[in-house]
Write a sequence for this structure.
């Protein structure tokens, strides 16, 4: 019964994150949204770990946190560089990779 | 059927193969602007590599050239049961050492013949990586390892053509890349099929040669088909050859030489080392097809040569014809044929490599390779003209020069193919192939007569300013025309000497190859009921 | 089995040095020749002299070897290289001499191997090889001496000598060949040198084209050599391996062909293929067209390569492995076979062509072709020895003729070879040249007591002896024609009125000679006058370096015949050269296969007595023995049998002389007085009185209407049809190549490749809009796809 609540929390967080990734123009906001998604996953992992009474979920969650930290580090560095070069971090203006 | 292995001095292959990477690493830390340093590192690295290669020659036990020597077998990727299995026998030794020496000489040639695009840093690094791939392919005795090395070769060559090539380089490099990738894809499928059909136990050549023979005939034929396409593209055999003229024509001289001397041999080597011993019944079923395509290649390549107006393209087409002789020899599945094929591989590498060097130098001097515009080279550059004549004679299979020993025994072997292959068919093939030697004489002498004999084209007379701009940056063509330079002599002399030495005393190579080939044919015979 | 051993010696054992010396000489000339005081010619001459010395030594020792066998079977001079040999001279007297098989001196070193079989390179010295070794080294040396004068000052003097020396090495390699591969090696090296030397003055397109044509035509024939060698190899190999040899070994092939175990069809087809090679190399019909064109090369080249030595390589090939042809074509049991047909056609066709040539070298070229036809005919009718003897004598007189022609152009006609324009009346200006020319001509025509008579007449005689009646007549007619065209050439060159350059006229354009004028200037500076002076000074005799070889060769043109002149009872040549067709005992299997020598291992040589229709080549050799040569019988010489040919030759000479004078002569010329001194000439004189009538009749009607159209037709066929086919094949190949390349390669095959690229490209274009570059859109796509995936997963699981 607990699990359901956690899962709902996870789903809400995930949806917020997805909305952020798709709709926000600001790169920092997008990165934060990605953090939300990752944390939604973490919540789920912990919830399932508790449900199944195993440690694997915890381990994975820790792993995800570490990776997320690295990812945000790189991401923010990129955002910084983009800002320096273009004086803007509006994502819809960044379409140089258009095929 | 256990392949005997000898494991003394087994560091030598790993060192010899991966040594160029040390040079690459070193060059990473040198700024690109220091071109001389890069060239020096390149020459030094490849010289040390070649020295290790020569040492291998001395350490090789010629009394046991049928067994794998310097053998290493250690775990590599256990999940997929791929091992780091390497070794050298009489079949691979000549090619292995050839690849090292050719790289060294090409590196020396680069000293003052850098292609126009410049940037020797990347160029030399690519060549060193290429060398790793080539040498690795010849020592690998594990399918996955072989495949990795085989593919490592692709990328540097792609860049060499694509960046340092001629006007149409992008098209040519892409064609080369896609074509070979297409072949590799099918080859990989075939490798995997072979792996699973033999019980998914090991990728090692020795195991597969033993277990592969037990596969159903029909399955063998299908697996062989996959390998056939993969290797045939690389050889290249008719009708998979169309990448070759473009790649050769557009590639820088160094690329052409390496392509002709070593890369093409990966295909034929694959047939001899992998496809035929692992799938004897498949090989027998496919042999007539290979033979027919090989002979079509001989005639077709020669006809193609006759139609060319560009010297480099002509030499490229002649490769199709020569590799046809090699494949004809292989398709007979006889000791004679396979020996001839192996000899032909080395000889073709030396001779066609030499021809491409000469073509490159002619292009460097005249800025054109149009046969109709060149003439009287013997007057303007007597030495270069003589070298061209020498190479042409070697290429058309004159006895006493290396080319003959690849060509004649191959023709001879077709008279009596092994394992009950259709004698009548092969005898017809033999006669057509022998006629191919006439065509070879025709196109090479025709080329030679038109370019070297006669009087020089007034267009290129010395000290005549060239009025037609046409995108050529050089103002004076005539002033560029000089005879063979010191660097060229250094790079070429070993080729010329090797062509004569192997031509005069072929036993040097047959002695090494023959026991290994005999053992191979015996194993194939055991696999054919 | 008596323990007697043939004598041997250092020179015989080390005959392999003979080709090696010029080969090394070639390398030295190429590398250092230009820096030497004589431009490398001293190396060429030196190496040829050294080879000649060894060849002479070997010849002497070979003769001793022959004598040691035939004089006394008990000679025991010790085995060599672990070989124990024994000889029992046959009791059977044949042709007045004892039939003993003289063991060839064979040595071999491993050259290459395949399938565990080792193949050698080495020497196989028997009478035939000895004869050619001596001949080639000797003539090469003389021609090189001649060349030091003839091409002196040439821009590529060094290269010229390098190529000549390499040629000698190649020819000697072939002559000594122990096996077929070695023979091919020498054969092709000669082809290369022929190419290099014909195209020596390659600045002119005509010369380089002639060089190309020569190499290419011979190469066509070489297909036969490759195929034939393969056929014979696989036919003979198993048999030979059992006996410790292999299927390339010339000895093994000969023995196998006569063993009775050889399949006749293999022998036949192998023989046909090899004969095609001989046709190409020896300028036989229909592949002879390259030989006259090859005259574009310098004259020493024509005299060495294209008359006396290289072109006999084809004949040598047939003679070398004669048993293959003997059994394959069933020579003694038929009245016609491929060799005789080709030889016969060649004799007549080439001789007819020689009548319409204005170029003196072309006359000689066609004459060479025709004489090679005789040699082939001889081999075809089973007259092995006369054919080989004809190689020997022909080499001397034909070489002399070419050198004389060279001498004429060098000093008499200002570098022109045109007999009608620039020669005539040179006999008095150049007495030595003219004398040597006429002696050689007499030899060529087969006038009795000159060497050609003894060889050619034997061929013709044996044709009838062995039942080839038709070819007997072909030979006779050919002899008459030879006499006739040579008389015409002699008359035009040395007699009659001097014309053009021979009369001292100065040409501004030097017809068809040296591209390099400085060459000639330098050459003449030696005699203290320059080009212009020379031209005005008119014809004169050539310097000694030209005349000395001429004199030597001309004297040999007389005397070489007496080595084997049945008319005076000599048969040394037969004794020394002909292998006896007797059964030879073989010492079991390959017990003697050592590194140094792995020929068939023999311990003893016995000779079985045989009747007329039995013996080697007729009946299979008995158990434990092999045959190396078929047993051939020789026609007995008699003057009555020689009479027809003598008469025909005499007729040919007189008719031609008479015609030549009528057609080319000048009425007021003092030579005209000759006509009243002989009966035939008087008859000619009677006609000549009616000058207009005769001129009209013979020149206008007979010559123009019969001889010219006939010969011209042959020449036309030669130039247009045969040559046309060669050219057409070339052009056809070219245009087929063009067509295939343009339509199939570039469109179909390449098209398929490009099409697949195009498809990939179009797909890419279609998918392009998705690649917007906007991160948000990518995210949306990603999550959209994930959602779809999730839904699918749920649906599947439900």
């Amino acid at each position: 019964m607990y699990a359901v609540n956690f899962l709902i929390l996870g789903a809400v967080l995930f949806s917020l994150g997805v909305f952020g990734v798709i709709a926000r123009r600001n790169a920092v906001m997008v990165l934060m949204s990605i953090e939300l998604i990752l944390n939604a996953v973490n919540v789920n992992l912990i919830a399932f770990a508790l449900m199944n009474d195993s440690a694997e979920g915890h381990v994975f969650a820790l792993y995800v946190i570490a990776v997320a930290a690295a990812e945000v580090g790189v991401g923010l560095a990129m955002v910084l560089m983009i800002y320096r070069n273009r004086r803007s971090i509006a994502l819809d203006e960044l379409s140089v990779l258009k095929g | 059927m256990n392949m005997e292995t000898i494991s003394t001095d087994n560091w030598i292959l790993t060192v010899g193969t991966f040594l160029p990477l040390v040079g690459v690493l070193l060059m990473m830390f040198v700024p690109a602007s220091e071109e001389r340093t890069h060239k020096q590192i390149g020459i030094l690295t490849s010289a040390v590599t070649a020295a290790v290669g020569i040492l291998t020659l001395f350490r090789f036990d010629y009394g046991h050239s049928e067994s794998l020597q310097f053998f290493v077998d250690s775990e590599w990727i256990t999940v997929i049961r791929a091992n780091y299995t390497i070794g050298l026998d009489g079949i691979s030794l000549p090619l292995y050492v050839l690849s090292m020496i050719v790289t060294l000489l090409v590196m020396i040639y680069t000293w003052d013949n850098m292609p126009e695009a410049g940037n020797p840093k990347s160029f030399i690094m690519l060549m060193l990586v290429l060398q790793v791939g080539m040498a690795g392919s010849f020592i690998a005795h594990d399918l996955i390892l072989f495949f990795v090395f085989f593919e490592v070769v692709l990328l540097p060559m792609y860049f060499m053509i694509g960046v340092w090539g001629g006007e149409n380089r992008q098209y040519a490099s892409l064609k080369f890349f896609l074509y070979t990738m297409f072949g590799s894809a099918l080859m990989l499928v075939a490798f995997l099929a072979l792996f699973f059909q033999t019980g998914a136990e090991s990728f090692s050549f020795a195991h597969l040669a033993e277990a592969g023979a037990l596969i159903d005939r029909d399955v063998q034929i299908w697996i062989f088909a996959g390998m056939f396409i993969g290797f045939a593209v690389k050889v290249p055999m008719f009708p998979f050859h169309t990448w070759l003229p473009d790649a050769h024509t557009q590639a820088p001289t160094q690329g052409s030489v390496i392509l002709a001397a070593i890369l093409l041999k990966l295909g034929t080597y694959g047939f001899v080392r992998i496809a035929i011993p692992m799938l004897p019944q498949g090989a027998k079923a496919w042999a007539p097809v290979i033979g027919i395509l090989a002979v079509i290649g001989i005639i077709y390549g020669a006809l193609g040569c006759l139609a060319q107006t560009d010297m480099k393209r002509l030499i490229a087409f002649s490769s199709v014809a020569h590799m046809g002789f090699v494949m004809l020899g292989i398709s007979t599945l006889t000791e004679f044929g396979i020996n001839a094929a192996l000899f032909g591989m080395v000889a073709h590498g030396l001779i066609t490599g030499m021809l491409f060097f000469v073509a490159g130098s002619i292009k460097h001097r005249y800025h054109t390779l149009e046969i109709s515009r060149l003439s009287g080279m013997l007057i303007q550059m007597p030495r270069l003209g003589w070298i061209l004549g020498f190479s042409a004679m070697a290429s058309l299979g004159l006895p006493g020069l290396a080319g003959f020993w690849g060509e004649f025994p191959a023709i001879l072997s077709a008279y009596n193919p092994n394992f009950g292959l259709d004698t009548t068919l092969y005898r017809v093939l033999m006669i057509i192939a022998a006629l191919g030697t006439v065509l070879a004489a025709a196109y090479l002498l025709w080329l030679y007569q038109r370019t070297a004999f006669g009087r020089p084209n007034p267009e290129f007379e010395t000290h005549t300013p060239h009025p037609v701009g046409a995108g050529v940056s050089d103002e004076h063509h005539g002033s560029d025309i000089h005879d063979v330079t010191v660097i060229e002599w250094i790079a070429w002399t070993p080729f010329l000497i090797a062509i004569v030495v192997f031509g005069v005393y072929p036993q040097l190579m047959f002695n090494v190859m023959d026991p290994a080939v005999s053992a191979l044919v015996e194993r194939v015979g055991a696999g054919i009921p | 089995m008596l323990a007697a051993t043939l004598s041997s010696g250092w020179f015989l054992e080390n005959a392999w040095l003979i080709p090696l010396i010029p080969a090394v000489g070639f390398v030295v000339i190429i590398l250092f020749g230009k820096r030497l005081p004589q431009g490398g010619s001293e190396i060429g001459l030196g190496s040829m002299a050294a080879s000649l010395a060894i060849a002479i030594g070997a010849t002497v020792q070979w003769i001793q070897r022959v004598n040691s066998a035939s004089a006394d079977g008990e000679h025991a001079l010790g085995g060599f290289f672990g070989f124990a040999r024994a000889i029992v001279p046959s009791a059977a007297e044949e042709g007045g001499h004892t039939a003993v098989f003289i063991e060839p001196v064979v040595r071999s070193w491993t050259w290459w191997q395949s399938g565990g079989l080792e193949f050698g390179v080495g020497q196989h010295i028997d009478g035939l090889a000895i004869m050619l070794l001596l001949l080639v080294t000797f003539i090469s040396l003389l021609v090189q001496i001649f060349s030091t004068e003839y091409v002196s000052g040439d821009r590529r003097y060094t290269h010229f000598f390098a190529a000549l020396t390499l040629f000698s090495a190649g020819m000697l390699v072939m002559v000594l060949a122990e096996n077929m591969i070695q023979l091919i090696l020498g054969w092709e090296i000669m082809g290369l040198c022929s190419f290099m030397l014909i195209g020596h003055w390659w600045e002119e397109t005509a010369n380089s084209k002639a060089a190309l044509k020569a190499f290419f035509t011979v190469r066509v024939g070489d297909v036969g050599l490759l195929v034939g060698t393969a056929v014979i190899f696989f036919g003979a190999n198993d048999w030979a391996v059992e006996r410790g040899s292999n299927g390339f070994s010339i000895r093994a092939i000969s023995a196998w062909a006569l063993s009775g175990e050889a399949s006749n069809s293999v022998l036949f087809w192998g023989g046909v293929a090899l004969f095609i090679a001989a046709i190409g190399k020896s300028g036989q019909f229909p592949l002879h067209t390259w030989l006259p064109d090859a005259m574009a090369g310098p004259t020493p080249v024509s005299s060495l390569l294209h008359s006396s030595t290289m072109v006999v390589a084809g004949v040598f090939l047939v003679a070398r492995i004669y048993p293959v042809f003997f059994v394959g074509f069933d020579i003694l049991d038929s009245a016609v076979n491929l060799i005789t047909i080709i030889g016969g056609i060649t004799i007549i066709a080439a001789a007819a062509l020689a009548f319409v040539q204005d170029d003196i070298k072309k006359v000689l070229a066609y004459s060479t072709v025709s004489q090679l036809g005789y040699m082939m005919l001889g081999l075809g009718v089973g007259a092995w020895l006369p054919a080989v003897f004809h190689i020997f004598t022909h080499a001397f007189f034909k070489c002399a003729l070419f050198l004389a022609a060279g001498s004429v152009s060098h000093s008499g006609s200002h570098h022109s070879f045109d007999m009608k324009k620039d020669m005539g009346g040179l006999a008095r200006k150049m007495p030595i040249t003219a004398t040597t020319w006429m002696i050689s001509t007499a030899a060529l025509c087969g006038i009795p007591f000159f060497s050609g008579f003894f060889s050619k007449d034997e061929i013709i005689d044996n044709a009838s002896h062995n039942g080839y009646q038709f070819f007997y007549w072909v030979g006779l007619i050919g002899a008459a024609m030879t006499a006739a065209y040579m008389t015409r050439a002699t008359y035009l060159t040395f007699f009659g009125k001097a014309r053009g350059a021979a009369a001292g006229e100065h040409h501004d354009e030097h017809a068809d000679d040296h591209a390099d004028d400085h060459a000639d200037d330098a050459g003449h500076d030696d005699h203290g006058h320059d080009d212009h002076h020379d031209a005005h000074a008119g014809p004169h005799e050539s310097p000694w370096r030209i005349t000395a070889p001429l004199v030597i060769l001309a004297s040999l043109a007389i005397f070489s015949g007496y080595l084997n002149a049945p008319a005076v009872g000599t048969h040394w040549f037969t004794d020394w050269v002909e292998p006896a067709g007797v059964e030879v005992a073989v010492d079991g299997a390959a017990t003697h296969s050592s590194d140094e020598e792995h020929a068939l291992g023999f311990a003893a040589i016995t000779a079985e007595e045989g009747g007329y229709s039995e013996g080697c080549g007729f009946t299979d050799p008995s158990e434990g023995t092999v045959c190396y040569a078929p047993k051939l019988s020789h026609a007995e010489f008699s003057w009555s049998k020689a009479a027809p040919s003598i008469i025909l030759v005499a007729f040919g000479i007189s008719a031609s002389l008479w015609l030549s004078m009528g057609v080319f002569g000048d009425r007021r010329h003092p030579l005209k007085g000759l006509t009243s001194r002989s009966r035939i000439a008087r008859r000619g004189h009677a006609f000549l009185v009616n000058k207009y009538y005769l001129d009209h009749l013979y020149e206008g009607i007979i010559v123009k209407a019969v001889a010219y159209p006939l010969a011209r037709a042959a020449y036309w066929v030669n130039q247009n049809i045969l040559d046309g086919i060669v050219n057409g094949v070339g052009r056809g190949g070219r245009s087929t190549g063009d067509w295939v390349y343009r339509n199939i390669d570039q469109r179909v095959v390449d098209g398929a490749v490009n099409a697949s690229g195009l498809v990939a490209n179009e797909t890419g274009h279609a998918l392009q809009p998705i690649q917007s570059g906007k991160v948000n859109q990518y995210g949306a796509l990603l999550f959209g796809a994930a959602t779809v995936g999730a839904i699918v997963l749920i649906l599947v699981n439900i």
